[in-house]
Amino acid sequence: MRYDSITEVIGNTPLVRIDPAVHGLRRIDLYAKLEMLNPFGSVKDRAAWNMARPGLPGAVRRGETVVELSSGNTAKALALIAGMHGLPFKSVTNRMRIPEIKDLLLLLGAEIEELPGQTECLDPTLTEDPLTLFHRELTRPGSAHLHTDQYFNDRNTEAHATGTGPEIVADLDGRAPDWFIACIGTAGSSTGVARVLRAHDPDVRVVGLVGRKADFIPGIRTVDEVHEVGLFDPDTYDTIEAVGTDEAIDGMLTLARRCGILAGPTGGAAYYGAVRHLRAAEEELTGRATAVFIVCDRGESYLSYVRRHRPELFNRPPVKNSVATLTPAEVQSAAAVDTAAAQRWIAEQQPLVIDLRSPFAYAALHIEGSINIVDELFDELLRGGLPFGKQQPVLLACPVGEQSARYAALLTRMGHPDARSLAGGIIAWRDAGAPLVRE
Amino acid sequence: MSEAPEHREPPHLEPPHLEPPHLEPLYLEPRLEPPLASLLESGAFLHSLTDALGSPLAVLLPDRIAENAGQFRAVYRRHHLSGSVCYAHKANRSSALVRRLAVTDAALDAASLGELQHALGAGFTADRIVATGPKDPEFLWLAALTGTTVHIDGQGELEELAGLVRKHGLPRVRILLRLSDFRAPGVRIRSRPSRFGTSAGSLDRLLDAVERHRDTVEPIGTAYHLDTTSLDEKAVALEGCLHAMDALRRRGFRPRTVDAGGGFGVDYLAHGAQWDRYTTALTHAVLGRRPPLTWGGHGYGLRAENGTLRGTLGLYPSHRPVAGAAYLDALLSLPAPSLGRPLGALLLENLYDLHTEPGRALLDQCGLTLARVLEVRRTDSGEQLVRLAAKASDIGLEEHGVLVDPVLVGRGGDEDPGGPPVGVHLTGSLCLESDLITRRTVFLPRPPRTGDLLAFANTAGYCMDFGATRAQRQPPARKVAVHRAADGWQWCLDEQYWPITRQGDPQA
């Protein structure tokens, strides 16, 4: 298929049936609407393009900056769209909690502004909260901004009422599904799709999914935050249910490992919430029924998110030559020398002095003639074997002599005959009045 | 008093429309640890104290501040760091707390001439005091004379201090440079503008001035204080201070101390689930989807516009799972935004000492405020009012945005539950419509009666005397220090407390 512009590729995403052997529903056909296959990678491509499009010619003429409150997929799509039109993009966000997305936005040339956390010494009369100030800046006369305003912009909903919704109906041979399940972020996709489906069949049941309160699932608002969304209307949904981080990751794993769908946590949450809701609803069902949920985006950007919440999913085999495998007795018996003895030893035998602190600290002050191999690098070096000959005596130095003792023990275990630790570390060295240099 | 019998009547005799249709009591129970928890179980003791000394009454547990300082010290040890834990005195005027702390290894952050005098008088030597905040010439002079370390807010203050030292022939003063407005790598953080400190971007100009005055001042390090609960913002600031230390070294100074300020926070609530449920209910109340949870439908900063929630919740996060010493631990474990190493490791390997200035966090569980119930009545619209012998300013929780329930302490013990849970409004003793102890509807496990005490737990940090007024010639609460001796609770007036005076203990 040939296109003139990448934006023409937005939409017309596939509807893929989930294998009943995976979800276990007996009377319901469950379909995933794969919004992750949009060109910029998410369901937000539709809204971003539809919201930005009318304003772009004027913005180009006036040299405006595209601005949005987003820490995720909308920012990503808008950054790409803005770039295509030669416009700068600025994202204002509470906190970029997904490092991969933050880095990607920076790579795309976006400017990111983060809003501060809550104040510790509360001033209840303060009306100048940073978000209010931001809005005031945008609405100031002469402000050179194209603000897409995703949480309040009806063109967000419209993108789905004219695109996502009709596509689902067309793919189900002109019928609306019996259930539609979607996570609520800006409420644009769920509201737009629900409007179309209900017009086809007023009996469609719409399930909105929100994040459990203490949890954070990227792209989904929590049960309280959802009320801050202008597009959110509780009457859109027959029911609103909460999903937790663990459940979202479970859903994400099922879709990836069993269905070949590399969804992100939001898609995982939608799958998990859909199956949970439908399993209960199925009990009252006599005939067959269909249900559709939305897979918002792809999983690759969320590896650090999953690692933080479920480190056990990333277990690796133990590494060779690791300080973690040392026994306390080994560490205890590592050779150590105090400052005075170390100074004599350095003068007489010229051992290799290895400073395990970071380059930043080493650059500020260090023992003259020492070389700097920061602990994490040294750790990696040792995995491959001894990085210096056995005839070369070694003095290891760290801030207080703990880490250096561990590495001295490890070197000894690896067969080094004369590796010693600077007892009390560089702090003891300084406190003893021994010289430290800055070069 | 004439109101009291009316409320002992069985509930079914009351007009049915009067009880607002609250589905269930939305409690926000305080987190209570020993010894505060057992103090609250000693109702007779608390009643006798209030009978003698009047309501409101502030009760302090000085031993607990030493324990809290020990928890901070344990975090220092875990990261192998040395340096001082400086109690931010402004959080409480109490003498007992300062005198108790003087016999620990903690230091003190004095923010006024009076606080500096108080600390010196309590036994803190000047090497254990830092002078912070806006300073008048007398404060600067006494700090310089005694050898107290001075936080320098900006170039103006530096010039003033240097002038004082020269004019009065004072010894060279150790100073910490207070910085603000740090830049994060990659992103711009819209931090709240601060009135305090020198912008990190203007450090060079400040250092020029420090060099000009090196005969009068000795920069021993850098400092920041950010008014935020966000760890990431603090990580940016702490790393900024490390870079500033480097700048000092480049100019030939030998700085040794990084001061990470305060703001470690307190977890006020026993159950996070209650906080979650309450704030959700408040959201629904503001949107009109459930009956109001506050006096006059106050939204604590939230409001409804066309069915959408607007505004920002202007409340202290009463439930903070990571607070106090644990928050410091988390901060030190966080990787520095540009250097990548954990901040604690960077401080250590640069051989720096860490200063912290916890106020609220050191006073966690250190005291409570008692108020007597004077009157219980219903308004015509059915709201239950409970009038206390205290002004709103005597119980600073509301002023600081902390939502937490008071504990009902009955005179005769609590063997008689005395009725179902109720939602009440707590009003103060001033002749002023707005004198509400809290604008929140407070749920109590039973209807309060005249003569009961309400104990507001965990008020020692900022919520005891910081904003207390003398309006209508009503004095602020008296303070007593208590401790548990072998034969029960013992007390003395706050100003009578010294760490060696232990009423009730066997005389050693």
UniProtKB/TrEMBL annotation, chain A:
Keyword Signal: no
Domain Rhodanese residue range list: 347-438
Cofactor(s) needed for function: pyridoxal 5'-phosphate
Top-level taxon in the UniProt lineage: Bacteria
Gene3D superfamilies: 3.40.50.1100, Rhodanese-like domain (3.40.250.10)
GO biological process, one term: alpha-amino acid metabolic process
SUPFAM superfamilies from the UniProt entry: Rhodanese/Cell cycle control phosphatase, Tryptophan synthase beta subunit-like PLP-dependent enzymes
Keywords attached to this entry: Pyridoxal phosphate
Keyword Transferase (UniProt): no
Protein name listed in UniProt: Pyridoxal-phosphate dependent enzyme
Protein species of origin: Streptomyces morookaense (Streptoverticillium morookaense)
Lineage: Bacteria, Bacillati, Actinomycetota, Actinomycetes, Kitasatosporales
TrEMBL record, chain B:
Key word Mitochondrion present: no
Matches recorded under Gene3D superfamilies: Alanine racemase (3.20.20.10), Lyase, Ornithine Decarboxylase, Chain A, domain 1 (2.40.37.10)
Gene Ontology biological-process entries: lysine biosynthetic process via diaminopimelate
Cofactor(s) required for function per UniProt: pyridoxal 5'-phosphate
Keyword Acetylation (UniProt): no
Superkingdom of this protein's organism: Bacteria
Chain spans, region Disordered: 1-24
Ranges where the Orn/DAP/Arg decarboxylase 2 N-terminal domain occurs: 82-285
Pfam annotation, one family: Orn_Arg_deC_N
Coiled coil ranges: none
Composition bias type Basic and acidic residues, residue spans: 1-22
Keywords, in A-Z order: Pyridoxal phosphate
GO molecular function: diaminopimelate decarboxylase activity
Protein name in UniProt: Y4yA family PLP-dependent enzyme
Species of provenance: Streptomyces morookaense (Streptoverticillium morookaense)
Lineage: Bacteria, Bacillati, Actinomycetota, Actinomycetes, Kitasatosporales
